[in-house]
Design a protein that fits this description.
The complex is a heterodimer of chains A (447) and B (324). Chain A is mainly alpha-helical and 447 residues long. Chain A has a domain of 231 residues: MetI-like fold. Chain A is 69% helix and 4% strand. The radius of gyration of chain A is 26 Å and the shape is globular. Chain B is built from 14 helices and no strands. Chain B starts with a helix and ends in a 6-residue tail after the last helix. Classes of the chains: A mainly alpha (447), B mainly alpha (324).
Chain lengths: 447, 324
């Protein structure tokens, strides 16, 4: 993979933060495993078929996002991610302009000279898409079928191996209601899709190419990281603010409560799109006045993504803060908190050991709900012009670039459809998972 | 009740002051007017004269808080804080970069926004409540299960998709409605049908789910059991008792949104070419017209606070238990 040049790690700021988040999640899981009362609701999530199918899809997205978050630099100076290296074929095979999915010819006509020396308007052959075919019109469908069959065969073989391992593992540990059949079914569907896509992508542009000839499948996969970043890093910014302020307001009451309430009422009284737009405009001004902060275009785009997450976090903590304050108001009167106070436990210890763990279900439910909203918001913000950097691959940018092309003849629909489909799958999985989490953790639903 | 409302009204004042200070900090302290001028003019080779001219044109050539070069009251009034922020309280929004008065623009562009937002809101509310009631009527059946899956799916679709698909399907392929545009007067309905339909459909997923959970919460209460014990049918229980009681959270939840309808919808208006306040805001953002964005931020906050006040009033009117 490395070729002649030596690769070195070159992490971006958002990479650090994402991996920090992964570490935090891993620590949380290790902690939860040792707490029976926390393990029980997660067991319930683990037993639900929908929840596990959604979790598998989410894990696939997170896997792509994490691969795309290990950035390397070669001695030639280019910064690429591990995902780029895996997809280097897709990345490098750029055409000149639009071409339809699985096409062998460009989607736009060019003037060409035919055999007899006449100038005709015709669609030229693609440089890479189906370039291995001698007579594309006759051979393409057969070639696609053969590739699909090969892909299916490979996928089934891989799936069988996984299935055997999982079944042995279940025999050893006992199943405990784990929805094995649904999980294996989902894995089979995913393996088949990946298998066929892989074989096709080897010789064609499966989702076509965009205006500058970039492979749409590659762009869609690269956008996964941006979507996850917006959904996850925002949480990282929002959580400490909402938790510290919300719990403090509910526990200490008095002027602390008044001040925090005033703060979040003021912030939430500005419609969020407007506040985000204003903040992003100001960020753009600051960034354009400080070109010395960035040593490359990548780091500039990356910082813009980071700032956007910070802005989204600062504007969106108010809802969770309000919920946490209300819950803490209830909890501080609870018997066990009174008992702790009577036993002389200090406020900091009460907050961290008695209150914070008992509001975690609210935090979890809110975070899972926010995630899908944020992924959807990214597209709207990019359309408004206050989203991620135009050079950052994102579904919002793809939609924005492609939406005017629906007026063309023939209609260029593939880039839009690919972006919407990738976004829809992620958001749907997140929503379904969030529902299961709420089902398991919300005490009101535990009737 | 009067005293209560006056107290709420007084509570709104510090919040407005907070919003005002926040916008001032955001627009003038994070970046100095010089920075904004340079960013606006393009960073390369900007002369000091060009920056000065840019600031003079927009009235930014004043000190932030205290003007030592003036006498008397003008030391305080001839400052950025006074001319740009305090004046917002009397809805003096100043001029946009185009030279037009922002207040005039807002007055002109509010009616199209309302013409789109009000029908979308009312039809959406009625449709969502009806659908939710229907799903609750068939709860714990296959229909409920299908409905829930459908709602999650609808909710997971990007709003941009609804717009683009609607325009393509009904505007381009079926030619039922113009894709975008607007005329004043009653003829506008032609241009409004499609965006209203798209807006209503885009809201179904989240809306029906929300009302469904409201109804389900009510259905577990004692009065419902009493109604059933009286021998009422399920439909009668739902419409006569559950809906009536759930109307309180539904209506109060709707009231808080009413004033915000003025602002219109950013993406709907800009996709469908409706010259309302939403597209005005987008134009302002895309042209980096800070005066417009500042004005809309403040106006949005005022309308939201108005919505909170109306909610308080609505509560005292609808729910006899709330008499403060």
């Amino acid at each position: 993979m490395s070729g002649a040049s030596a690769w070195q790690l070159a992490p971006l700021w958002t990479d650090y933060l994402l991996w920090l988040l992964v570490l935090a999640v891993a620590l949380t899981i290790a902690y939860v495993r040792r707490q029976p009362h926390l393990r029980a609701p997660w067991r319930q999530v683990g037993r639900s078929g929908t929840g596990m199918v959604a979790a598998l899809v989410l894990m696939a997205y997170v896997g792509i996002g994490l691969l795309d978050s290990v950035h390397l630099t070669s001695d030639r100076g280019a910064v690429v991610s591990v995902l780029d290296l895996c997809l280097s074929d897709l990345r490098d095979r750029t055409e000149t302009t639009y071409s339809a999915p699985l096409a062998t010819h460009s989607a736009s006509l060019e003037s060409m000279t035919d055999k007899d020396g006449n100038t005709v308007r015709a669609a030229p052959r693609l440089r890479y898409g189906g370039a291995h075919l001698g007579a594309p019109a006759q051979q393409r469908n057969a070639d696609l079928r053969d590739r699909a069959l090969l892909g299916i065969a490979k996928a089934v073989a891989l799936w069988l191996a996984i299935a055997v391992v999982m079944l042995i593992w279940r025999r050893r540990l006992g199943s405990d209601g784990f929805p094995m059949r649904r999980v294996l079914g989902t894995l089979l569907v995913m393996a088949l899709m990946i298998g066929v896509l892989r074989e096709w992508a080897d010789g064609y542009h499966v989702f076509g190419t965009d205006k500058v000839g970039q492979d749409v499948l590659y762009l869609s996969l690269k956008s996964v990281r941006t979507g996850l970043m917006i959904g996850l890093l925002t949480t990282l910014v929002m959580l400490p603010l909402a938790m510290v302020l919300g719990i403090a307001a509910g526990y200490f009451r008095g002027w602390v409560d008044d001040l925090i309430q005033y703060l979040y009422t003021t912030l939430s009284s500005i419609p969020s799109v407007l506040l985000i737009a204003a903040a992003v405009l100001m960020m753009q001004v600051t960034m354009s006045n400080h070109p010395e902060w960035f040593d490359s275009l990548e780091s500039r785009a990356d910082l813009r993504l980071l700032f956007l997450c910070v802005i989204l976090g600062v504007t969106s903590w108010t809802g969770l803060c309000r919920l946490l304050r209300a819950e803490t108001l209830k909890l501080r009167e609870a018997d066990y908190v009174e008992a702790a106070r009577a036993a002389g436990v200090g406020p900091l210890r009460i907050l961290s050991r008695h209150i914070a763990p008992n509001v975690m279900h609210i935090v979890l439910i809110q975070v899972t709900l926010d995630f899908s909203a944020l992924v959807l918001a990214e597209a709207v913000l990019s359309y408004v012009g206050v989203g991620v950097d135009p050079s950052t691959p994102s579904w919002g940018n793809m939609i924005n670039a492609a939406r005017l092309e629906l007026a063309r003849e023939p209609v260029v629909w593939w880039s839009l459809s690919a972006a919407f489909a990738f976004m829809f799958t992620l958001v749907l999985a997140a929503n379904l998972f969030a529902d299961q989490v709420r089902e398991a953790f919300d005490p009101r639903r535990r009737a | 009740m009067g005293a209560y409302l006056i107290r709420r009204l007084l509570y709104a004042i510090p919040i407005l002051i907070g919003v005002n200070l926040l916008t001032f900090a955001l627009f003038f302290l994070v970046n100095s007017p010089d920075d904004m001028a340079r960013a606006h003019l393009g960073n390369k080779r900007v002369t000091a004269e060009a920056v000065e001219a840019w600031k003079r044109e927009r009235g930014y050539n004043r000190p932030l808080l205290y003007n030592a070069g003036r006498d008397g009251i003008e030391r305080v009034t001839d400052t950025l804080f006074f001319t740009k922020s305090i004046r917002l309280f009397v809805f003096d929004f100043g001029q946009a970069d185009s030279g037009r008065a922002i207040a005039d623009d807002i007055r002109q562009r509010a009616p199209p926004s309302l013409a789109l937002a009000v029908p979308t809101f009312v039809i959406g509310l009625l449709l969502n409540v009806t659908l939710a009631l229907g799903i609750v009527l068939f709860r714990a059946s296959v229909l409920d299960w299908l409905g829930q899956i459908g709602l999650v799916a609808l909710m997971s679709v990007s709003s941009l998709f609804y717009i683009i698909a609607g325009q393509y399907l009904f505007g381009k392929l079926m030619r039922l409605a113009p894709i975008s545009g607007y005329v004043d007067g009653w003829e506008a309905w032609r241009f409004l049908v499609l965006p209203i339909a798209v807006g209503v459909i885009a809201g179904i997923g989240a809306g029906v789910r929300w009302y469904r959970s409201l109804f389900l919460e009510e259905i577990g209460k004692d009065y419902v059991r009493t109604a059933r014990a009286k021998g009422l049918g399920e439909a009668q229980v739902l419409v006569g008792h559950v809906l009536r009681n759930a109307l309180i959270p539904i209506l109060t939840g709707a009231v808080v949104l009413l004033p915000l309808l003025f602002l219109g919808s950013l993406i709907m208006e800009s996709f469908f070419g409706i010259p309302g306040l939403g597209s005005y805001t987008i134009e302002g953002i895309q042209a980096q017209d800070f005066a417009i964005v500042r004005a809309m931020v403040f106006l949005g906050a005022v309308l939201y606070i108005l919505g909170l006040l109306l909610t308080d009033i609505a509560y005292t009117l609808v729910d006899p238990r709330v008499r403060l």
